[in-house]
Inverse folding.
């Protein structure tokens, strides 16, 4: 199975979102391999069966389809659209934590419950969700650690930020699939400038841009946009253009606007 893309034309920008139906992934466009573990980064993975599953040699494997961040030992923050294609059955999803390799290392954790924002509208608003894990992640603040979600409410343009993920490496989503987590130094842009580029963003979103051939792509969805010192999560990867990293901004759910909702979601999942 391949990624299923749904395309929506809004003003002059074409947007894309992913429905996780066994996901092909690679890396951030224009990024570079991380040099040390990113403790808060996780990979959301979908279980697939081998081509010859009908034989006695049948086995199961896992494919990365979205990113996420650790916000507590048993809670993950991600995008609502990452979970939308699974209905109420999350038995085929797991979370891989504590590794820079999407196919090896780390610890695998299975999903107990999830909560997506009640007013989530794909490509429009409230693209945020919380996952509760069946078993807690052992946090050591080296290979596994929680990222802070509370902080500055007024981040606007020209703020240096960092994006990490295993998303596609080319604008047309083809190429070699690296195993190593990728990182990109980014800069936020004002919402007004983002609107001028054709994105109908609200105060509940934040935009970032790095110029041509540098940006987020399919497979980065749900992943964390953080401050340059990696102390606070600013955004959750939400959407961008059909052709990735062509000089237009990427849109992120603005975490600071959802802190109360995240706390309420965690309480409801306890």
């Amino acid at each position: 199975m391949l990624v299923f893309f749904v395309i929506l034309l809004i003003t002059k920008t074409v947007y894309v979102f992913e429905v996780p139906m066994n996901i092909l992934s690679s890396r951030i466009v224009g990024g570079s391999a991380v040099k040390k573990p990113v403790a808060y980064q996780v990979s959301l993975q979908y279980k697939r069966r081998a081509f010859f599953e009908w034989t006695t040699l049948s086995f199961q494997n896992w494919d990365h389809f979205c990113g996420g961040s650790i916000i507590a030992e048993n809670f993950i923050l991600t995008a609502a659209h990452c979970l939308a294609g699974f209905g109420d059955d999350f038995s085929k999803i797991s979370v891989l934590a504590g590794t820079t390799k999407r196919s090896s290392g780390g610890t695998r954790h299975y999903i107990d419950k999830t909560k997506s924002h009640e007013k989530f509208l794909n490509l429009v608003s409230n693209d945020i969700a919380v996952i509760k894990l069946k078993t807690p992640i052992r946090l050591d603040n080296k290979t596994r650690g929680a990222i802070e979600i509370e902080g500055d409410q007024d981040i606007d343009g020209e703020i240096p930020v960092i994006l990490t993920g295993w998303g596609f490496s080319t604008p047309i989503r083809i190429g070699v699939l690296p195993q190593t987590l990728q990182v990109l130094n980014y800069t936020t842009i004002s919402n007004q400038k983002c609107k001028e580029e054709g994105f109908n963003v609200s105060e509940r979103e934040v935009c970032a841009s790095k110029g041509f051939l540098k940006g987020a792509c399919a497979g980065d969805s749900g992943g964390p946009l953080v401050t340059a010192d990696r102390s606070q999560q600013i955004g959750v990867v939400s959407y961008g253009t059909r052709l990735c990293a062509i000089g237009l901004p990427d849109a992120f759910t603005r975490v600071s606007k959802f802190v109360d909702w995240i706390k309420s979601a965690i309480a409801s999942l306890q």
Q: What stands out?
A: The chain has three helices and 15 strands.
